[in-house]
Amino acid sequence: MSEPGLRSVRLERVAAGRYAVTNVRGGTLTLGRGDDAEFTPVEALLAAIAGCTSVDVDEVTTRRAEPDSFVVDCEGIKVSDDDGSHLSKVDITFRLEFPDTDQGRAAAGMVERVVRLSHEKLCTVSRTVMLPTPVRSIVGDTVIDGH
Fold first, then answer.
1. Residue 102 falls within a domain, yes or no?
2. Alpha-carbon distance 52 to 125, whole Å?
3. Residue 46: left if φ>0, alpha if ψ -120 to 50, beta else—which one?
4. How far apart are CA 53 and CA 118, in angstroms?
5. Beta partners for 96?
6. One domain, residues 109 and 65
7. Domain shared by 7 and 18, yes or no
8. Torsions phi, psi for 131 (to 5 deg)
9. Domain range spanning residue 73?
10. What digits encode the pLDDT tens for the residues 25-58?
11. Rounded to an integer, what is the distance from CA 53 to the centroid of its chain?
12. Cα atoms in the 13 Å half-sphere on the side-chain side of 71
């Protein structure tokens, strides 16, 4: 029996520096080291942050109107310091355009509020990154929890 709310993926090495990540529904994402077109793990994290909050915004605003344009950029600075390697200053920039109709203006008027709600409560990915979240590595019977 699985734990409520459990999400999981499986990563398998397919070649030197290339990995296939598969979800329980059969979807696959290929990761690489950054020397080819494949996403690096850091780029996948940025995509997950952008994707999670975009789903929130899209779901609410499109109840009013379909966007003419929906573009979200997510970027962060990769650093190595006393805390180890990590991203600093992650920015998510929304560029949304809606039709010049009553419904389009209503949708556009909701964007800032929904982005704020996603940032503060709804987006599981960015909330996980922003909050202290324990991450454990398990090798055989050994748990490596970073403490």
1. yes
2. 6
3. alpha
4. 6
5. 70
6. yes
7. yes
8. -90, 155
9. 40-131
10. 999 999 999 999 999 999 999 999 999 999 999 9
11. 8
12. 5
Q: Who contacts 137 (Cβ-Cβ below 8 Å, separation ≥6)?
A: 143, 144, 145
Enter the tokens of residue 31: 């990761």
CATH of residue 77: 3.30.300.20
Which residue type is seen at 84? G
Say whether both 121 and 50 belong to one domain. yes
| Residue indicated by tokens 């039709």 | 99
DSSP string, the chain: -PPTT---EEEEEEETTEEEEEETTS-EEEE--SSSSSBPHHHHHHHHHHHHHHHHHHHHHTTT---SEEEEEEEEEEEEETTEEEEEEEEEEEEEE--SSHHHHHHHHHHHHHHHHIIIII-HHHHHHHS-----EEETTEEE---
Q: What is the pLDDT of residues 68-113, one digit of tens each?
A: 999 999 999 999 999 999 999 999 999 999 999 999 999 999 999 9
Q: Are residues 59 and 19 in the same domain?
A: no
